[in-house]
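In response to reviewer comment 3 from the previous cycle, which asked for concrete evidence that the modeling workflow produces usable outputs, we include below a single protein chain processed end to end. The sequence was submitted unchanged, and the resulting structure tokens are shown without manual editing.
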Amino acid sequence: MRILIVNDDSITSPYLKELARLLKSENHEVMVVAPLYQQSAKSHALTLGVPMKLEKREDLVEGVKTYSLDASPATCTKFAYVHLDYDFDLVVSGCNNGLNMGDDIIYSGTVAGASEAAFFGKKGLAVSVEVGDMEALTNNFINVFNQIIESEIFNIADTLNINIPRIVKGLKITHQGLNTFDTEFIETEEGFLATGKSLYGVLDNKTSCDLDAYYDGYVSVTPITVDRTDYNVYNIYDKTMFK
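The workflow returned the following structure tokens.
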């Protein structure tokens, strides 16, 4: 399989290198195009109107052609396909040093790097672990990856958002839950800083959501789409009601 790896934690992330090592160890063809700088919470932003510096780097892992691009994760995916002419089968975005579940999905540059693949008719996997939990990635990723790409859901879905715990009971297909943050803006001498804590645990999550599956020891696998249409609303109204 021809795999493009992008991320939002930048070209210097050890999680990016470990992900490349793991995929290359399975004899996949792998290319890395990662942001030059940290791009967390950039969502699906594209880098437009400013010059982007491309740098060919030393192979992150032997045999893995590696580039940095001064751009957002979604732009890295687009650049690899359009300019570098890398006709990948799959984008694997990550591995993110921090979970991406619930509300995080809409803000996540990691998720956007994977879901950008859908615009080219390709597949995308966004992969995340708890902050600092390299062990969860190293010990579990290949088993999780192989189960997913051999599954029916991989054939059907455009993008799968995956969060891997350290001790894995199994995999669960989940829906996006609630992970709202109690946000505050703290004034400092340099300006305002956003801070806050997760309200998970006091919100009305269901047992089939990504957060509950993850915290129960399962890999959460959430199918997502770039189609933002609210079909619950769209499907119940007469489409000619507005004239």
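The helical segments are 14-25, 73-82, 104-107, 109-115, 134-149, 152-156, 210-215, 231-234. We consider this sufficient to address the reviewer's concern, and the full set will be provided in the supplementary archive.
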